[in-house]
Every structure is written in structure tokens, then in C-alpha cells.
Design goal:
single chain, about 80 residues, two-stranded antiparallel sheet, two-stranded antiparallel ribbon, binds FE2/S2 (inorganic) cluster
Length: about 80
């Protein structure tokens, strides 16, 4: 079970490139948040793949509580931690 939490709970703005795939961390163990670094290997979790359909800035969730992963939906504003 995951006991480690992301250092920052706020979203991160990332410029994504059209056609490129991004691997969003779902286990919350990666040190390269919000992206996967392979730390999930001992869990049953896998990264969520985000395919950029255009080159633009995207707000990736880091609190892992969003209802629309991997994108921030504002849920982090209502967390107690
Ligand atoms: S960082 Fe905003 S919903 Fe997770």
C-alpha cells in the first residue's frame, strides 16, 4: 500500500508536445512528479498514459485525487493536507 505522498499537492503546468505520450504517476512514489520514474514496480499500479493531441500547456494533477486524471480538476484546493 502506498504510504508516501507527493511533496507538493498543487498542480504543475507542463508544455506538452502534440503526438507525444506522457506517463502520469498513479502510485505517488515517483520522484519525478507528476510523471512516472518506474517506482511503481513493486505495486499493482501502472502509470496513466496521456497522449497530447496538440502542443499546449497542461496542468497535471499532483495530489492524485483528481476526478479527471491526469489533469487537475481543482480537487487539491479542498484537501486538508
Ligand atoms: S493537483 Fe489539482 S486536483 Fe490534483
Amino acid at each position: 500500500m502506498n504510504t508516501q505522498r507527493s511533496i507538493s499537492r498543487a498542480p504543475v503546468l507542463v508544455e506538452v508536445i502534440e503526438g507525444k505520450r506522457y506517463f502520469w504517476c498513479t502510485c505517488d512514489l515517483s520522484i519525478t512528479q507528476p510523471f512516472c520514474d518506474g517506482s511503481h514496480q513493486d505495486s499493482n499500479l501502472k502509470p496513466l498514459i496521456f497522449l497530447a493531441t496538440q502542443t499546449t500547456n497542461v496542468r497535471f494533477c499532483r495530489c492524485k485525487q483528481t476526478a479527471s486524471p491526469p489533469l487537475c480538476d481543482g480537487t487539491h484546493k479542498h484537501l486538508n493536507t
